Amino acid sequence: MSLTLQEIQDFKGKYPKQIWSLFFSEMWERFCFYGMRGMLVFFMIHQLNFHEKEANLQYGATQAFVYAFTFIGGLFADKILGFRKSLFWGGLLMIVGSILLAVDPHVYFYFGLAFIIIGTGFFKPNISTMVGELYKEGDNRTDAGFSLFYAGINLGAFLGGYVCVAIGKGYMLSSVIDEAHRWNVAFGLAAVGMLVSLINFHFTKKKLGPIGLQPGHPDAIVKTKPLPKWAEYAVYVGTLLLIPLIQVMVSKTEYTDYFMYIIGPATLVYLFFEMSKVSAAERKKLVAALVFIIFSIIFWGIYEQSGGSLSIFAAKNLNDSLVGLTVDPNGVNNSGGAFFIILLAPLFGLLWIWLGKRKLEPNTIIKFGLGFIFLGLGYYVLFATRFFATDGVSSLDIFTTALLVITIGELCLSPIGLSIMTKLSPAKLQGIMMGMWFLASAYGQYVAGLIGANMAEARENAGKAEALLTYTDGYKQLGLYALIAGVVLILISPIVKKLMQEVR
Ligand code: GLN
């Protein structure tokens, strides 16, 4: 017997049990995604003979495209496929893309990436939306659920991000995999991760009751007329037809610029059209959601220095001693954040529940504001690395402290952002709004790349000591912007609160 929505949402305890199904599917999807992403820059430079700058631009373009397609994925989930089928379709595309890369990463590089880009678009936003549907409106355990889910995201990111590139470079399993096949195995492992994700989802989805069913299904949460079967097939065919186009766009980074100029305004226009069809109260909530989305662009623009300028900074300006152990500073930069999230996310979840019970839980705007303030403080700690340097080489311990502070900021904003999208969107626009949330990440990545490139340019050919000063100056600046954004958010909180009405 299938569960009803009410039975699911009336769960006892801290977390609904269905969250584990979504937790593991998302964990393995992120294993695949971060495994792939973690190999890109190195693979481009060492296997495809890209210059550093080219590789960085290419990497940025891939990231921007990945997150930009979440809007399309969310849109088609709402209108035609439903969340479950979208997730499945996206997962299949990601598997095909990873297999293409595994078969011959040199030949199928852009072709494989194109599959992964659009596949992620169908998968990523829709699984988060399903987490939101496990909760009744006003359930103050929602943010805790998203924090737990976020730990799953980062567990996958941490494992995939480490293992895949380590196999490719020959740091792991090199005695059993001959050198000529390391990259094939590494990309293949990403495909295996994605396969595990889909198998897990397939066998656990029946516990989701009506959540994620296709529009038009008699049990679907939003009641609509049944859809003709061809509409679904048209989405599948349309997706496949889009792949060669994405392949071309992602292979020439100047197209990314045009794409980014167009996609944001186009989605906004579409959203305004959808907003004209909802009630005034719903519209106000959507405006509040847009405020969060816009601020999140600033957040990710600063935060995402980690993939770009901070990795150059880690390589050139940090020593390799962490609490007395010798480690690779780039490894710390890549995985330190995920490590802290895995550790802290469940605790933050419990903290929100604990505060909630005592009526002390800060509302979403204040959490966002705190997110910016911690982000800003973290960047000030990065600035402070300059006071612990000899000959331009500074302390990895201080750097790691900065990562910890930044991570606290991330936990106040990123899972809470997912949660608030599901709370502020009417049922029939859930997918689109989650897509918008991730589209903001696409712009964040894009802006981060521009900021990073600027900083890199300023210190080109400089010695280590000079580079340290230039970079840390930049981080101080970014820290200040983050603090300002946090203060502005807290100042405008009464207005946003009004727009949010009963939603906290
Ligand atoms: N690290 C998180 C994830 O992979 C957040 C990504 C984002 O929104 N930029 O889901």
TrEMBL record:
Transmembrane segments: 31-50, 56-77, 86-103, 109-127, 148-171, 183-203, 233-250, 256-273, 285-303, 337-356, 368-389, 401-420, 432-453, 478-496
CDD domains in the record: MFS_DtpA_like
UniProt superkingdom: Bacteria
Location within or outside the cell: Cell membrane; Membrane
Bilayer topology: Multi-pass membrane protein
Any one GO biological process: oligopeptide transport
Coiled-coil annotated residue ranges, if any: none
Single annotated GO MF: peptide transmembrane transporter activity
GO CC terms, sorted: plasma membrane
Record keywords: Cell membrane, Membrane, Peptide transport, Protein transport, Transmembrane, Transmembrane helix, Transport
Database matches in PANTHER family: PROTON-DEPENDENT OLIGOPEPTIDE FAMILY TRANSPORT PROTEIN (PTHR23517:SF15), RESISTANCE PROTEIN MDTM, PUTATIVE-RELATED-RELATED (PTHR23517)
Family, per entry: Belongs to the major facilitator superfamily. Proton-dependent oligopeptide transporter (POT/PTR) (TC 2.A.17) family.
Name by which UniProt lists this protein: Proton-dependent oligopeptide transporter, POT family
Organism of this sequence: Soonwooa buanensis
Lineage, broadest ranks: Bacteria, Pseudomonadati, Bacteroidota, Flavobacteriia, Flavobacteriales
